[in-house]
Amino acid sequence: MESPPKTSKEFASFIKEHSRIINKVCWVYSTPKVPYEDLRQEILTNLWLGLEQFRGTSKLSTWVYRVSVNSALMAIRNYKPKVETLPFEISTVDVSSESDDYKAEQLAALHELINLLLPIEKAIILLWLDEYSYEEIADIIGIERNNVATKLHRIKNKLISKTK
């Protein structure tokens, strides 16, 4: 069984190990109103504060996903305008070690399509794209496995209809 970090040094290592998950959630949920860096800070804070509540009934990566998605959804729900922000640019996020124009265009198109989805749909498709099983997605999102399959089917159809 994995154990959560106990010291700030262990936490830094823990964040580095799970940064791909955290960054991906931030990338998908960030908007001009809830910028990437603000969202990332909110997630990191909630991970640190929530460490004591990790029960060990799931993998740490599953727990990180759950906290990250829930933090993002809460940040969007609780958004109150503070200061003027600059719009999120896909070029500001290094999501690939190979940055060629074609990949950047494909990522931008994917980001546009995913942004058309409802927040819960974003979470489900993000986990599915990360190759989580239906059971793991159900555990992270807090819905039944059969509901995951149904929602994924509908999400895929929704995305296909948007590309036509």
Summarize the structure in short.
It contains 7 helices and no strands.
Question: What is the general shape?
Answer: globular
Strand content: under 5%
- What's the CATH H-level superfamily name of the largest domain? RNA polymerase sigma factor, region 2, helix turn helix motif
Q: How many alpha or pi helices?
A: 7
SS-based class: mainly alpha
Tell me the domain tally.
2
Helix content: 55-70%
Uncertain segments: none
Please supply descriptive tags for the structure shown above.
2 domains, single chain, Arc Repressor Mutant, subunit A, Rna Polymerase Sigma Factor, Chain: A, mainly alpha, 7 helices, 0% strand, globular, 164 residues
Describe this structure in words.
This protein has 164 residues and is an all-alpha fold. It has two domains: 1-89, RNA polymerase sigma factor, region 2, helix turn helix motif (Rna Polymerase Sigma Factor, Chain: A); 99-164, Orthogonal Bundle (Arc Repressor Mutant, subunit A), CATH 1.10.10. It contains seven helices and no strands. The mean pLDDT is 83.
